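FORM 7B - TANDEM STRUCTURE REPORT

SECTION 1: FIRST PROTEIN
SEQUENCE AND TOKENS:
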Amino acid sequence: MFRYLLWRQDKKPMRFFKRSLVFFFALSLSGCTQGDTLDKIRRSGKLVVLTINSPTTYFIGRDGSDGYEYALTQKLGATLGVDVEYRVLDSIEAILTAIKKGEGHLAAAGLTRTDGRAKQFLFGPDYKIVRQQVVCQRKRRAPRELAELAGISLAVAAGSSYEEHLREIENQIQDFHWTSLADHSSEQMLERVGEAKLDCTVADSNIIAINRRYYPALKVAFSISEEQPLAWILTPGAKQLAKYLSGWFVEQRESGYLNQLNTRYYGFTEIFDFVDTRAFIRRIDKRLPKYQQHFESAADKVQLPWTLLAAQAYQESHWNPQAISPTGVRGIMMLTLPTASEVGVKNRLDPIASIQGGARYLQRLLKRLPVDIEGEDRLWIALATYNVGYGHIMDARQLAKRLDKNPNSWGDLQSVLPLLSRKEYYRSLKHGYARGKEPVQYVRRIRNYRDILEKKLMSGKKG
């Protein structure tokens, strides 16, 4: 071709030659980079993530951006050595439209891999398993099987994976009708059910586990699907990125990082008590205002979130300053006599003194723990120590090492602590027997109360 261009010297060669060079250069560049999304991300130094605002994906928490998908994509960005830019869209429908147009490198929004979606989109590896469940208003009679959905007012978020599944089953049930609502998220649908504006909806099990604690009137009726995987959807043609993610997710799973995320964002959702949750939400309005400023003041002195201290106090006494247990612990923070003496509390039934003393004691435990326990793990282990005692926590760490678990990880330690009640384990430990399940439940409940409290404070809604 180039010989031909040079030969045509009497046919305006330079203009033709320049245009041809531009054409071949563009064609060559396109051939090298087409579909090479991974290379583009690295060259630009930026990973563009499409997501949705929800408690299971991406949200603004007390310390800024947070969420399961946020943490996971931040980890990916750090591994690639690039910044992560988040484009938060209003609905799953909008997410799918945007990723199809290539407006982001990947969509991380708790997206279910379905047969229908797999025909349209390029998925990354699976990272979490969920089930689709029918969830209804607790005060109304809930269906127990598919046939009982007839006559039920059921709606789902438009563009969600639930639509695909409901289309498959609607021909099986006579008089079964459902609707989809545009510009609604699964969380908004759950809120409508919780407020009795809708009989039932369908949502993924992980979304329900988080949200039923905010709306305790929600009740799971039954599952309508087998286990289904969640996965990221990648921009069209991103084959190299898909290949990279296959190995990357294996590394995250083997390193225990995915387990850490599950512990962090879902580890406390297993505890759900309808009566207790409803009572807690009411007491946020009725009891907490009496003590909130004291929690804030005490927490500020020890540099801890006041909502954590308030949640701990609720777990201890349900914010009852006159609480007394059969074992002799007393007050809103349920201090033992030796602990109260250690932190300078003379009257354990004085709520202000008890709150300040409990905060000081928790601070001392945080400082006392080994320096190699870091981050949130340090906080959860300190809370467990408050409950079961320092000696038993040190025993659990020793046992964790024997079992090839990480003694600095709360995720690993909470699996070891229950073993302290089994003779084959505790007889070889310095401090012997302990009811090891109790500190695990203790931490889960505090995290649960704190999460509900912060959600309610941010929403400004009354229970």
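SECTION 2: SECOND PROTEIN
SEQUENCE AND TOKENS:
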Amino acid sequence: MASWIGTICGIIGALLVAANNGLQDVGYMFFLVGALFSLFAAIKEKHYSNIALWAVFASINIFGLIKYV
């Protein structure tokens, strides 16, 4: 279930950032939540390459939020 929440949040985040309609900060929040849920799912399933990927994505999303806000 966590991986599906991560996927859905990632899609919503991508749409909000790509739309360039003033909701980029909300989009980054969805990206971050999606990355954290995906990271949790990867940890649970012991997929080490995905753990690295989602940890980096979560860090980049935090960086993006800090730079944007």
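SECTION 3: OBSERVATIONS ON SECOND PROTEIN
Helices lie at 2-19, 24-45, 48-68.
The chain has a mean pLDDT of 93.

SECTION 4: SIGNATURE
Preparer initials: ____
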